[in-house]
Design brief:
Elements lengths: L1 H7 L7 H8 L3 H14 L4 E4 L3 E4 L8 H8 L2 E8 L2 H10 L7 E8 L18 E9 L8 H13 L7 E4 L3 E4 L2 E12 L5 E9 L16 H5 L5 H22 L2 H9 L7 E6 L2 E10 L5 E5 L2 E5 L5 E4 L1
Parallel strand pairs: 3-4
Antiparallel strand pairs: 1-2, 4-5, 5-9, 6-7, 7-8, 8-9, 10-11, 10-14, 11-12, 12-13
This protein binds biotin.
């Protein structure tokens, strides 16, 4: 798949003959493969007799050297992986990389979302990035995932999308459609030294997808501009590092006001679900350790935990 898509990544016409020669397959096999790949990866393909095939828009492929030059840390840039978080955890287990380091991929076959969900990750369209950090003080982990949301939002705000904001605990939405998600995974002993893998998925250039089972959007959908994924990755990691620097000194209180200001559902009536039980209340804000504060029938209650789902009433 990746070889074929790399040949077509420039968005120009390529004849079936040329593609077949490069791949060592027949012209009809090229057509079959293209049809499958474009369907699976949600890529629009144009086929014009006498000219050949072209992708509707070029692919913004990741460039390891440019990323490392600008970020100054090790960037593992992969083609197709199960999950960048899983790759990062394997690097840690094998002591293969100094921290901090980043893992990026063009495609994830088993992208991990929160609460066991799958994160749909078509080839070279969105950003799939895991940033790995060594943590020596468990205090640092408090509300870290909410703080990361602030860094992601700061990265996305300059694209000028109306209605962008946070949703507790760490979704980035445009109005009510998901634009980006965050999944933190820990390894080691939080009471001693551990590592945190900060997994971030941002929908960048995706224009259509049939199998995402929630309302979603992408930067390109909102702005109608082709997004340079390398620039996006650099801005994201820089914002993340800046925020983590502040977080290590002052913790979540340093980002608390900004988080609440950017919370799209601040003051809204919500339904908080955990398995079969649910609570109705109005969002007051979040506590300094990132728990959700709700006004439930006139008294304040706080909620935290990975298995909670928040919906508008
Ligand atoms: C969510 O469900 O909102 C969290 C989605 C997190 C997806 C990212 S993509 C990069 C990293 N690798 C994964 O497998 N998941 C995270």
């Amino acid at each position: 798949m990746q070889q074929l898509l790399r040949l077509l990544a420039d968005g120009r016409f390529h004849s079936g003959e040329e593609l077949g020669r490069a791949l060592g397959i027949s012209r009809s096999a090229v057509w079959k493969r293209l049809r499958t790949v474009s369907q699976q990866q949600f890529l629009k393909l144009h086929s014009v007799p006498g000219k050949g095939y072209r992708l509707e828009q070029p692919l913004s492929l990741l460039r390891r050297e440019a990323l490392e030059d600008q970020l100054g840390i090790c960037c593992h840039v992969e083609e197709c992986v199960d999950s960048t978080n899983a790759v990062a955890l394997r690097h840690l287990a094998a002591l293969r990389s100094d921290t901090p380091f980043v893992v990026l991929a063009e495609h994830q076959s088993e992208g991990r979302g929160r609460r066991g969900r799958v994160w749909i990750s078509p080839y070279a369209q969105n950003l799939y990035l895991s940033y790995v950090l060594r943590v020596e003080n468990a205090q640092y982990l408090q509300a870290l995932s909410l703080a990361v949301g602030v860094a992601v939002l700061r990265t996305l705000e300059p694209y000028g999308m109306h209605g962008i904001g946070l949703k507790w605990p760490n979704d980035i939405l445009v109005n009510s459609s998901k634009l980006a998600g965050i999944l933190l995974e820990l390894t080691g002993d939080p009471a001693d030294v551990c590592h945190v893998v900060i997994g971030i998925g941002i929908n960048a250039n995706l224009m259509e997808a049939s199998n995402i089972n929630q309302a979603w959007t992408s930067i390109q959908r909102e702005t109608l501009r082709l997004i340079d994924r390398n620039k996006l990755a650099v801005r994201l990691v820089k914002n993340l590092e800046r925020l983590l620097g502040v977080h290590i000194e002052h913790g979540f209180p340093a980002h608390h006001a900004e988080w609440e200001e950017k919370h799209l559902w601040q003051g809204r009536d919500v339904r908080l679900m955990s398995g079969a039980s649910e609570v109705l209340g109005r969002v007051i804000g979040v506590t300094p350790d990132g728990a959700l504060r709700l006004d439930v029938d006139g008294s304040e209650q706080t909620f935290s935990g990975g298995e909670l789902t928040l919906r508008l009433q």
